[in-house]
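[job 4471] stage=fold_predict status=RUNNING
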Amino acid sequence: MRKVTGLTLLCFFFILPAAVFAQEKTYEVSSTVSALMVREEPASNSDVIGKLKAGDKVKVFKEEHGWFQTYFNGQQGWVASHYLYASSESSSSESSASEVSNDQEVTIQADGTRIRTGPETSYRIQTMASNGDTFPMVDTQNDWVQISLPDGSTGWVAGWLTNEGGQAAPASDTSLAETPQVNSSNTAANGDLSGYNIVIDPGHGGHDPGAVGLHGVQEKDLIMRAINPIVSELEKAGANVILTRSDDRFVSLEDRVRISHSYNTDAFISIHLNTNPLTVINGISTHYYNNNSKSLAYTMQESLGSQLNLANRGVMYDGLYVLRNNNHPALLLELGFITNANDLSVIQSESYPADAAKGITNGLIRYFNQ
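[job 4471] inference complete, writing structure tokens
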């Protein structure tokens, strides 16, 4: 065996960090965000150590679960990767086909605008954009514009929903064709869920009661009251339903994600109820983490908002464990506050389980058949 000398170890000590540093890349903060938080850990609930503004450039050393590691004022920190895009300062060898060859930008002019994988409405939805969002332009095709997304990929948006609309708008105005619409009739969209595997994840259970609301009610009990109607409605629409728990037992967060990964899951839906020390806080919200879940989140929140007689708190980006560690489209639904008297009365009403079941089922039908 070759003898390792002290000099050899010393050289290895100094050379290895240089090799790691050589792989760093320069990224720029997207113009779609006014302030990007730098956090101590790669999680949205981690402490904030600083802020970056649109156009700021950072050196990235590592990627982990949708987060980039960088340094801020000499301190290691993490930023959400989907708000950064490769800067022109990165070496040419790091360039990809999706990088923009000109400086022209496109501004979205409608909330809920769908960004697709190709230049037609038949292509899959990648993500959503809001009024005022700005993206670098890559190419155009017929009435569609290809844009560069913050994660480095590209997508297509209907030109008539951007500031390019004057040049790209079709002869007959169909400007709302790519804007999500709420179905006020509360009935399922055309199509069904035949062949889709839907994992329903009732939150908490067993020794974990979840939140405790007014009059001592427990989140885990109220959740299970709605699970059978949800399963029944989904199966009636043709879905294959998998439950992470079907009774009052404890299931770890790791096992909940493991169950999702054990199937060819099309959607993972975690069911929860909310609490707040301020009893006036109320309403429902839909939470997502990965970009492959964003479009589903908006569609689901619209469906729930049209079905449940509760305030609409909107869609929220959230780094919860079952969302950030899930390889499949995953949502966490907060279906009302059990610390708010009005919300709790609705949640405990006879019609609530069926209404929640219809909202979830219709949301999935609309998403998979749009």
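[job 4471] summary: The chain is about 25% helix and 30% strand.
[job 4471] exit 0
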